[in-house]
From TrEMBL:
InterPro entries: NAD(P)-bd_dom_sf, SDR_fam. This is Oxidoreductase. One of its GO terms (molecular function) is oxidoreductase activity. Keywords: Oxidoreductase. It comes from the Bacteria. It holds the Pfam family adh_short. PANTHER family: DEHYDROGENASE/REDUCTASE SDR FAMILY MEMBER 7B, SHORT CHAIN DEHYDROGENASE. One of its GO terms (cellular component) is membrane. SUPFAM superfamilies: NAD(P)-binding Rossmann-fold domains (SSF51735). Belongs to the short-chain dehydrogenases/reductases (SDR) family.
Amino acid sequence: MAETTARIALVTGASRGLGAAMAEQLALRGWQVVAVARTVGGLEELDDRVKAARLPGAGNLTLAPMDVTNEDAMRHLCLSIHQRWGKLDLWIHSAVHAAPLSPAGSIDIKDWDKSFATNARATGSLIPVVEPLLRFAPAGTALFFDDPRTGVKFFGSYGASKAAQMAVVRSWQAETVKVGPRVLVETPAPMPTATRARFFPGEDRSVLTDPRAEALRLLDAIN
């Protein structure tokens, strides 16, 4: 393990939307970013955008095409981060599964299971392996995104799994107030992402906030 003064960020769910925008902005600000997503093409496009910017002092992207529900792969990735850098300054968890909208009486159990595997179980399995890395940093920070849909009609699978995710995140947040790492929860502005398009296909996307602008706002807020 080599000591480093570089700032290291792990972004889970980094191939598109807000996760991709935050990974891009972190890299452009000089961070070393480990970008995790299932979509290889999305990660490569992210890398291309960072390289095309050609900003002096820009950081590097380490592309990690894997599914956050693969617990063995994620444990191995965290071990690799420890062996390479010895710490993690920032974890941004934006990976999410947006199940199709459905009445509660017509929920597809496969969508239900995938929602909980991605939105809830993966969060619960990642916190124990990421927390030690954050503790090795001077001000390790974890950032999660809330999207409260509990009780909203047709949002049964998504709303329940996000509520379960927030339950464990807010417990972790309360437990670490005095001892760290810092755990933050933000509710982003509505953005024209693929996830939102599945929920609101007919809305006017021109009035929504650009993910890059929202990423800049959030990064400024947490620093």
